[in-house]
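Structure first, sequence second, as always.
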């Protein structure tokens, strides 16, 4: 996915969090905010150092990016995915299932998700 689809600036991430529109569970929290300026959805991923060493944090970010790439989102949202340390025990399939449930609860997806 293109880098245009990522939220990079800290000020933009703070704005998403300040909207306080979120859904979450033991493993992930998704904050969302409306976006009418870019014409497409944008996202950011946050992983705390409590999750593990850099290799582990980068692996979970790659997995979450892959899941986001395979999902069709509503075009007018920015969202932030916060990954909690408890997610380190999950397999890729469990991560995918859990994130798709949260995407549905947050109402940011367009219908069904794609399976690979």
């Amino acid at each position: 996915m293109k880098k245009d689809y990522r939220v990079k600036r800290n000020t933009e991430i703070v704005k998403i969090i300040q909207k306080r529109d979120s859904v979450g569970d033991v493993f992930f929290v998704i904050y969302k905010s409306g976006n009418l300026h870019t014409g497409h959805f944008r996202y950011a991923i946050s992983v705390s150092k409590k999750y593990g060493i850099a290799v582990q944090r980068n692996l979970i970010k790659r997995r979450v990016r892959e899941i986001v790439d395979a999902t069709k989102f509503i075009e007018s949202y920015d969202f932030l995915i916060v990954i909690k340390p408890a997610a380190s025990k999950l397999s890729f399939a469990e991560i995918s299932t859990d994130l798709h449930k949260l995407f549905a609860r947050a109402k940011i997806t367009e219908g069904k998700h794609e399976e690979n």
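Margin note: Residues 3-106 form a domain with the Ribosomal Protein S5; domain 2 fold (CATH 3.30.230.10).
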